[in-house]
Amino acid sequence: MLKMHNIRKVYRTDTIETHALRDFSLEVEEGEFVSVTGPSGSGKTTFLNIAGLLETATDGQYLLDGVDISKLGDSDRSRQRNEKIGFIFQGFNLIPDLNLFDNIDVPLRYRGFNSKERRRRIEHVLQLVGLSARAKYLPAQLSGGQQQRIAIARALAGEPRFLLADEPTGNLDSEMAAQVMELLESINSAGTTIIMVTHDPELAARARRNIQIVDGRVSDSKAAPVAPVAEPA
Amino acid sequence: MLELKPMLSALWRNKTSAFLIALQLALTLAIVSNAGVIVSERVEKIARPTGMQVEDLISVTFMPIAQEYDMAGAVAADMDLLRGLPGVVDAFPTNQIPVSGSGSASRYFSEPNQEIGGEVANYYQVDPNFINTLGLELVAGRNFTAAEMDVMGPNENYDARVAIITRDFGEALFPGEEPLGKFFFPLGENNPIEIVGVIDRHLGAWVGWQKAGQVVFYPLLIKTNHKRYMIRAEPGQRDAVMKLVEEKLAQRDANRVLQLETLSRDLEQSYMSDNVMVKVLSAVIALLTFIVSLGIVGLTIFWINQRRKQIGIRRALGATRANISRYFLLENGLIAALGIAMGFAIAMLINRMMVTSFSQPAMPAGLLLSCAALLLLASLGAALVPALRAANISPATATRSV
Ligand SMILES: Nc1ncnc2c1ncn2[C@@H]1O[C@H](COP(=O)(O)OP(=O)(O)OP(=O)(O)O)[C@@H](O)[C@H]1O
Ligand SMILES: [Mg+2]
C-alpha cells in the first residue's frame, strides 16, 4: 500500500521557488490501476518521482508498504526502489550500449540474484512481452513499441509490487499504445499495482481509478464504475 | 565481478575511445619504464661506493712561481706542516686528484714484453700515507715502506719495483686468481712490478669510465712543476681545516699559487651530467604520468557526461551511489589493465632496441611492475573524483531529461 500525507515538493532555483506539489495526499491500495492526468506542469511527474523514490519530498509523510520513506538513507532508498518499484518512462530509457537481455539484467544484478535466477527471470519476462527471439538485439534495432515492451519487461523482472509509468504511450502511435496498454492491464490483473500518468483521456478512462492533479494538488479522484472492455483491434 | 560481462560489451561498443586511452597508457608505460631503466642505472652509478672517505677529504694543487724550485724539499716541509695541524688526520702528495675527471692511465700485462691485449689501469703516485689519508681498505698484503719511496725528476725513466693495486684491477689482470705476490709488466717492457698490497676499492679518476676502479699506486714522487696534496680532516671539520691549510701553506711559502677544493665537490662535478639526466628524465616521467592522468580525468568526465541519462536510469532501477562509482572505477580499471598489458609489450620492445643499439641494461621486471603500479594508481586516482561525482547524478534524471 502506498500512502502520501500532506506531501510538499518545492524546487528552488536561484530566481524562483516552484511549488510542484502542495498538501498532496493520496492512498493507493494493493492491486489498483490508477491513471493520473492533469495539465502540463501540474506536478504529475513530480508525484511519480516521489512515489517511485527517485526524489524526496520537501515535507510530509510517505509510507510505502508501511515503511516511512523520509527516514531512509540513500542506499536504503535505492534498495526499496530496486525491490518494490518498477519504472516505465515515456522515452523508454533503455541503455543503448547493452543488448535487450543485459538491459533487463541491470536491476536484477543490483538486486544480487545469481546468474541462474536472473536468466530464468529474464527469459520469463521476455516471453511475457513477446520478444524472446530478440534477446541479443540492441535497443536501436527495435521499434518504439518493442522498446517500450522491453522497458516493461525490465520493470517487471524484479517482480515489483508497484509499477509506475510516466506517459508510457506518449511516444507511441495508437496501435502500439494499445498493445502496451493491454500488456499493462494484464500485468495489473496478475496483481501488480499500477500508477500511470497519461495525457490520453481514452487510456486514462481504462484505468479503474483516475486522479487529476491540478497545480500540485489532487483535484479530483474518482473510480470508474466499470472498466471498459478493450475493443479488439 | 558484479557487472564485468555487460561492462565489457558496453566498452566494446565504445572501443575506439577506450582503445585510444589504453594506447596512451601503454605508450606512457613504455616510455616511463625505459626512462626508469636509465634513471635507475644512473642512480646506481652515482650511489657506487668510491672506496674513499670523500666527505672528509680536501685537495690542494700548488704551482711554485719560481722557475728553480726545490720541489722535494717543499713537499717534505709541507707534509710535516700538514700532518701536524689540528683537525688533520693525515696527508700525502700525489700527481692527480681522484674522481676529479683528470688522471693518467696505462696498459699493463701479466707477461713481459707484450704490446697487444693486457688491461688498462688508472695510476697514481703516492706515499705510504695514502691508505690512511684516503680511508682505503687494504684487503691483502702490506702498505709501502718509507724505503720503497722513489723521488725522480720529471724526465727520468721510472722502473717501478712494487705496486699496490685495486681488487678490480687484480681481477682484470689475473681473473679468478689471488693477485698478491704476482708480477705485472708495463707496455712492451720486461721489468717486473710486484704486487705487494691489494686495496678493496678506489674508483679512480673517471667515474664514467668503463674500467673505473682499475687502479695502480706507486711509491713515487716526481718533481713536476706542480704538485697535489690530499688531506683528510677529522669528521665534521673539513671546512675549518681547509681554511687553516690554506692559511698555513701560504704562510710557509708565499711564492706559489694554491688552489683548494673539497673532494665532495669534485665528485659532484663528475656526476653532474648523470644528475642532470636523472633530473630531466624524472621530470619527463612525472610530466607524462600527469598528462596521461589528465587525459583519463578528461575522458572519464566526458564519458560520464555522455552517460548522465544512463546513470540516472541505473539509479532509478536500483543502483546505489556506490554501484555507480564502482562501475566507472571498474571500467577505468579494465581500460588501464588493457593499456598496461599493451605497455608491457611495447616497453620490452623498446628495451630490446635500447639493449642492442645503445647497450643499455635490460629492463628489470621489478622496475616494469612498479611503473605499471604507478600508472594504475595514477589512472585510478584520476578516475576517482569523476566517478564519485557521477554518483551524485539524481535518479530523477531518468524522468526529467529527454
Ligand atoms: N528539477 C526541477 N527544478 C525546478 N523546477 C522543476 C524541476 N522539476 C520540475 N519542476 C517544476 O515543477 C513543476 C511540476 O513539474 P512536473 O514535471 O511534475 O509536471 P508534469 O505534470 O509532469 O508536466 P508534464 O505533463 O509537462 O510532464 C513544473 O512547474 C516544473 O517546471
Ligand atoms: Mg511529466
Automatic annotation (TrEMBL), chain A:
This is ABC transporter ATP-binding protein. Residues 2-233 form the ABC transporter domain. The keyword ATP-binding applies. The keyword ATP-binding applies. InterPro entries: AAA+_ATPase, ABC_transporter-like_ATP-bd, ABC_transporter-like_CS, ABC_transpr_LolD-like, MacB-like_ATP-bd, P-loop_NTPase. It comes from Biformimicrobium ophioploci. Keywords: ATP-binding, Nucleotide-binding, Transport. It comes from the Bacteria. One of its GO terms (molecular function) is ATP binding.
TrEMBL record, chain B:
Residues 52-246 form the MacB-like periplasmic core domain. It comes from Biformimicrobium ophioploci. Residues 283-395 form the ABC3 transporter permease C-terminal domain. PANTHER family: ABC TRANSPORTER PERMEASE YTRF, MEMBRANE COMPONENT OF TRANSPORTER-RELATED. Its main location: membrane. Belongs to the ABC-4 integral membrane protein family. This is ABC transporter permease. It is a multi-pass membrane protein. Keywords: Cell membrane, Membrane, Transmembrane, Transmembrane helix. It is found in: Cell membrane. The keyword Transmembrane applies. The chain crosses the membrane at residues 280-305, 326-350, 362-385. InterPro entries: ABC3_permease_C (IPR003838), MacB_PCD (IPR025857), Macrolide_Exporter_MacB (IPR050250). The keyword Mitochondrion does not apply.
